[in-house]
Amino acid sequence: MDMNNNGLDLTKISEGLRTEAYPDPGTGGDPWTIGYGHTNGTYPGETCTEGQATAWLREDIGWAENVIRNCPFAGQLKQQEFDALVDFVFNVGTGQPGHKDGFVWLRNGNHSTIYRKLVGGDHAGAADEFPKWDLPPLPGIVTRRRRERQLFLTGTWT
Protein backbone atom coordinates (compact mmCIF):
# COMPACT_ATOMS: atom_id res chain seq x y z
CA MET A 1 0.00 0.00 0.00
CA ASP A 2 1.19 3.51 -0.80
CA MET A 3 -0.05 6.78 0.62
CA ASN A 4 -2.80 8.11 -1.65
CA ASN A 5 -3.30 11.73 -2.72
CA ASN A 6 -5.75 12.47 0.09
CA GLY A 7 -3.16 11.50 2.67
CA LEU A 8 -0.39 13.29 0.81
CA ASP A 9 -2.51 16.45 0.74
CA LEU A 10 -2.81 16.28 4.53
CA THR A 11 0.97 16.09 4.83
CA LYS A 12 1.37 18.97 2.39
CA ILE A 13 -0.97 21.29 4.26
CA SER A 14 0.54 20.28 7.60
CA GLU A 15 4.13 20.81 6.48
CA GLY A 16 3.45 23.92 4.39
CA LEU A 17 5.13 24.77 1.09
CA ARG A 18 8.25 26.93 0.98
CA THR A 19 9.73 27.33 -2.51
CA GLU A 20 12.89 29.02 -1.27
CA ALA A 21 15.35 27.29 1.05
CA TYR A 22 15.33 28.53 4.62
CA PRO A 23 17.67 27.89 7.55
CA ASP A 24 16.85 25.80 10.58
CA PRO A 25 15.26 28.14 13.13
CA GLY A 26 17.34 26.65 15.93
CA THR A 27 20.74 26.91 14.27
CA GLY A 28 20.24 29.74 11.80
CA GLY A 29 21.85 27.44 9.22
CA ASP A 30 22.02 23.69 8.68
CA PRO A 31 19.89 21.84 8.00
CA TRP A 32 18.40 24.02 5.27
CA THR A 33 14.83 23.15 4.33
CA ILE A 34 12.75 23.62 1.17
CA GLY A 35 9.46 22.41 -0.29
CA TYR A 36 7.37 20.40 2.16
CA GLY A 37 10.09 19.92 4.77
CA HIS A 38 12.77 18.54 2.43
CA THR A 39 16.30 18.78 3.85
CA ASN A 40 18.40 16.25 1.91
CA GLY A 41 21.01 18.18 -0.06
CA THR A 42 19.22 21.50 0.41
CA TYR A 43 21.46 24.57 0.26
CA PRO A 44 21.10 28.34 0.83
CA GLY A 45 19.52 30.12 -2.14
CA GLU A 46 17.95 26.96 -3.58
CA THR A 47 14.47 27.32 -5.06
CA CYS A 48 11.92 24.81 -6.30
CA THR A 49 8.55 24.55 -7.97
CA GLU A 50 5.49 23.06 -6.31
CA GLY A 51 5.89 20.04 -8.59
CA GLN A 52 9.48 19.48 -7.45
CA ALA A 53 8.42 19.90 -3.82
CA THR A 54 5.73 17.24 -4.30
CA ALA A 55 8.23 14.86 -5.93
CA TRP A 56 10.63 15.35 -3.00
CA LEU A 57 7.81 14.77 -0.52
CA ARG A 58 6.88 11.49 -2.22
CA GLU A 59 10.52 10.39 -1.87
CA ASP A 60 10.91 11.72 1.67
CA ILE A 61 7.75 10.08 2.98
CA GLY A 62 8.82 6.65 1.73
CA TRP A 63 10.56 5.74 4.99
CA ALA A 64 7.33 6.44 6.95
CA GLU A 65 5.33 4.31 4.50
CA ASN A 66 7.83 1.47 5.06
CA VAL A 67 7.47 1.76 8.84
CA ILE A 68 3.71 1.23 8.57
CA ARG A 69 4.01 -1.49 5.89
CA ASN A 70 6.30 -3.46 8.23
CA CYS A 71 4.02 -3.31 11.27
CA PRO A 72 2.34 -6.58 12.31
CA PHE A 73 -1.11 -5.00 11.81
CA ALA A 74 -0.42 -3.56 8.33
CA GLY A 75 -2.61 -6.12 6.59
CA GLN A 76 -5.67 -5.03 8.57
CA LEU A 77 -5.38 -1.32 7.78
CA LYS A 78 -7.80 0.55 5.56
CA GLN A 79 -6.25 3.03 3.12
CA GLN A 80 -7.40 5.97 5.25
CA GLU A 81 -5.80 4.46 8.38
CA PHE A 82 -2.56 3.82 6.51
CA ASP A 83 -2.50 7.41 5.24
CA ALA A 84 -3.13 8.91 8.68
CA LEU A 85 -0.45 6.75 10.27
CA VAL A 86 2.10 7.60 7.59
CA ASP A 87 1.54 11.32 8.18
CA PHE A 88 1.80 10.76 11.93
CA VAL A 89 5.05 8.78 11.65
CA PHE A 90 6.49 11.29 9.19
CA ASN A 91 5.93 13.98 11.82
CA VAL A 92 6.79 12.24 15.13
CA GLY A 93 9.20 9.54 13.97
CA THR A 94 9.50 5.94 15.13
CA GLY A 95 11.11 6.65 18.49
CA GLN A 96 14.13 5.05 20.09
CA PRO A 97 14.38 3.34 23.47
CA GLY A 98 16.38 5.46 25.87
CA HIS A 99 16.25 8.53 23.63
CA LYS A 100 12.95 9.62 22.05
CA ASP A 101 9.26 8.82 22.13
CA GLY A 102 7.75 7.86 18.78
CA PHE A 103 5.11 5.76 17.08
CA VAL A 104 6.82 2.38 17.49
CA TRP A 105 9.07 2.92 20.50
CA LEU A 106 8.92 5.06 23.59
CA ARG A 107 12.08 6.16 25.34
CA ASN A 108 11.18 3.75 28.20
CA GLY A 109 11.58 0.81 25.77
CA ASN A 110 7.87 0.02 25.42
CA HIS A 111 5.75 0.31 22.31
CA SER A 112 3.53 3.39 22.13
CA THR A 113 -0.11 2.99 23.15
CA ILE A 114 -1.33 3.73 19.63
CA TYR A 115 0.94 0.97 18.29
CA ARG A 116 -0.17 -1.50 20.99
CA LYS A 117 -3.84 -0.77 20.34
CA LEU A 118 -3.39 -1.42 16.62
CA VAL A 119 -1.56 -4.69 17.32
CA GLY A 120 -4.53 -5.66 19.49
CA GLY A 121 -7.04 -4.75 16.78
CA ASP A 122 -8.46 -1.77 18.69
CA HIS A 123 -8.63 0.76 15.85
CA ALA A 124 -11.11 3.05 17.63
CA GLY A 125 -8.85 3.13 20.67
CA ALA A 126 -5.86 3.86 18.45
CA ALA A 127 -7.72 6.79 16.89
CA ASP A 128 -8.25 8.24 20.36
CA GLU A 129 -4.47 8.34 20.87
CA PHE A 130 -3.76 10.91 18.14
CA PRO A 131 -4.66 13.95 20.28
CA LYS A 132 -2.31 12.78 23.03
CA TRP A 133 0.61 13.48 20.67
CA ASP A 134 -0.04 17.22 20.32
CA LEU A 135 3.26 18.23 21.90
CA PRO A 136 4.29 20.89 21.88
CA PRO A 137 0.65 22.03 22.01
CA LEU A 138 1.06 24.54 19.20
CA PRO A 139 -1.99 25.31 17.04
CA GLY A 140 -0.45 23.63 13.98
CA ILE A 141 0.32 20.42 15.88
CA VAL A 142 -3.11 20.31 17.53
CA THR A 143 -4.76 20.80 14.11
CA ARG A 144 -2.55 18.14 12.52
CA ARG A 145 -3.45 15.55 15.18
CA ARG A 146 -7.17 16.38 14.83
CA ARG A 147 -6.93 15.97 11.06
CA GLU A 148 -4.96 12.71 11.32
CA ARG A 149 -7.58 11.28 13.66
CA GLN A 150 -10.41 12.40 11.38
CA LEU A 151 -8.69 10.89 8.32
CA PHE A 152 -8.04 7.66 10.24
CA LEU A 153 -11.73 7.37 11.22
CA THR A 154 -13.61 8.80 8.23
CA GLY A 155 -11.31 8.93 5.21
CA THR A 156 -11.43 12.72 5.03
CA TRP A 157 -9.55 15.34 7.00
CA THR A 158 -11.27 18.53 5.84
Extract low-pLDDT stretches.
none
Q: What is the top-level CATH class of the largest domain? A: Mainly Alpha
Coarse morphology: globular
For the biggest β-sheet, the strand order reads: 1-2
Q: Which band does the percent of strand residues land in?
A: 5-15%
Total E-strand runs: 2
Whole-Å distance between the termini? 22 Å
Mean pLDDT over the full residue set: 96
Secondary-structure-derived class: mainly alpha
Number of domains: 2
Largest sheet descriptor: 2 strands, antiparallel
What share of the residues lie within helices? 40-55%
Q: Could you tell me the radius of gyration in angstroms?
A: 16 Å
Q: Element order, helices and strands?
A: HEEHHHHHH
What CATH calls the topology of the largest domain is: Lysozyme
User: What is the count of helical runs?
Assistant: 7
For the record, the CATH architecture of the largest domain stands as Orthogonal Bundle
